[in-house]
Amino acid sequence: MTTSHALAPSTPTRRNPFGTLVRQREVPVASALVALVIITTIANPLFLSAQGVKDLMLNATITVIMAVGLGTVIITNNIDLSVGSILGLVAFGTGSVFAAAPDIPIVFVFLIGLALGALLGAINGFLVTVARVPSLVITLGMLYIYRGVNNAWAGGQQYFAGDRPAAFGRLSVDTVLGVPIITVIAIVVVVLVAVFLARTRPGRDLYAIGSDDQAARLFGIPVSRRVLTAFVLNGTLTGLAGVLYASRFNSVGATTGTGLELDIVAAAVVGGIAIFGGSGSVVGAAIGAVLLTTITSSLTALGVDKFWQQAIVGILILTAILVERIASIRKARRLRTSEATHA
Fold first, then answer.
1. 51 vs 183: CA distance, rounded Å
2. Regarding the domain delimited by 45-332, which CATH topology (the fold level of the hierarchy) does it fall under?
3. What is the CA radius of gyration of the chain?
4. Which candidate, 110, 123, 103, places its Cα nearest to that of 166?
5. Counting runs of H as helices and runs of E as strands, what totals does the chain give?
6. 3-state secondary structure string, 84-152?
7. Beta-bridge partner residues of 175
8. Burial level of 137, CB count in 10 A (0-12/13-18/19+)?
9. How far apart are the first and last CA of the chain?
10. What secondary structure, in 3-state letters, does 227-296 show?
11. Where are the domains of the chain?
C-alpha cells in the first residue's frame, strides 16, 4: 500500500527588522561618528558646547552638499575630479557679482551660481558621454582647465567678507531652531536628492547604469542622458556649495577649493557609495562627510598632529574599499551557490 504525503506549505521567511537595519551601509558610518563624538567629548567636554556643535555643523555643510552631488556621479560608475575647481570658480564669481552689483538680490546670486555650476557640470558630462573617454581622465583634465580659468580671472585679486552684503554673510551666522541656515539648506538638499534617487525612474536608472551599463542599454535605459543628468546635478550642487562657501569664509580667490575634490571623494566612499558604482546612498555620503569633518575637529581638539588626521582619513578610505570588495565577493559566491542549488 502506498502512503501519500501532502506537501507542506512553504512558510514565508520572516525578515528581522533589526538585522536589516544593521546591514544598512549607513549604520557603520553613523556608529563610528557617534563613537567619535562620545570619545572626544569625554576627553574634551567643551567639544559639544553650543558653539562647538554649531561649528561642527558649519564645517560639514559644504562637504555634505558636494558629497551628495558627487555621490550621484559615482553611483553611475563615473567620477568628477573637477569639483574643487568648479567650487572655486563659482565662489570667486559670487564675489565678482557682488563687487559689480552690490545691491543685487541674494536670490539672483544663488541662481547665477547654480547656473554656472550646472554649465560646468554639463561640459564634463557632455565630454564623458560623447567622447566615451573614462571620466577619470576627462575630469582630471577639466580640473586643471577650470583652475587655470579661475587663476586667469582672479589673478592676485581676492574678495573679502567686507565686500559682500551683511545679509549674505549672515547665512552662516543666523540659525533656525539652533541650526545654521546654510546647514538647513544642506539638509534639504540631502532629502531631495535621496528622494530623487529612491523614488523616481531616472534616479533608479543611475544605479542600474552603475551596476552594468551594457545591460542598462539593453533594457532601454538612455544611459548617456542619465549620466549627463548626474554630472549636471553634481555641477549644480557644487555651484550651490560655491555660493555658500563665499558666504561662509572670509575670502575667496584663485586658490579657493584647491585639493577639495579628494576630500569629497573620500566622504562619498567612506559613506558607503561603492567606488565602482551601482550601490550606496547620498544619505550615507552625507554621513561620511560629517564623519570626516568631525574627525578633523576631534583630532584638533585632542591636539593630534595634522599628519595623523590625513593618515586616518586614508585608512578609512582603504577600509571602505576593502569592505566593499569583500562584500561583492561574498555576494557573488552566494549567487553561484544559489544557482548551483537550483540547477
1. 14
2. ABC transporter involved in vitamin B12 uptake, BtuC (1.10.3470)
3. 23
4. 103
5. 14, 4
6. HHHHHHHHHHHHHHHHHCCCCCHHHHHHHHHHHHHHHHHHHHHHHHHHCCCHHHHHHHHHHHHHHHHHH
7. 180
8. middle
9. 33
10. HHHHHHHHHHHHHHHHHHHHHHCCEECCCCCCCHHHHHHHHHHHCCCCCCCCCCCHHHHHHHHHHHHHHH
11. 45-332
Q: How far apart are CA 323 and CA 142, in angstroms?
A: 31
Are the C-beta atoms of 166 and 41 separated by less than 8 Å? no
Structure-derived torsion over alpha carbons of residues 306, 70, 94, 154, reported in degrees to the nearest 10: 60
Spell out the per-residue pLDDT of the chain, length 343, in tens: 444 444 444 444 455 554 444 456 778 888 888 988 898 899 888 888 888 889 899 999 999 999 999 999 999 999 999 999 999 999 999 999 999 998 899 999 999 999 999 999 999 999 999 988 899 999 999 999 999 999 999 988 998 888 888 899 899 888 898 899 999 999 999 999 999 999 999 999 999 999 999 999 999 999 999 999 999 999 999 999 999 999 999 889 999 999 899 899 999 998 889 888 888 899 999 999 999 999 888 888 777 777 777 787 778 778 777 776 776 677 667 766 766 676 6
Q: Which of 307, 308, 249 is nearest to 88 (CA)?
A: 249
Which residue type sits at 291? L
C-alpha to C-alpha distance for 100 and 214, rounded to whole angstroms:
49
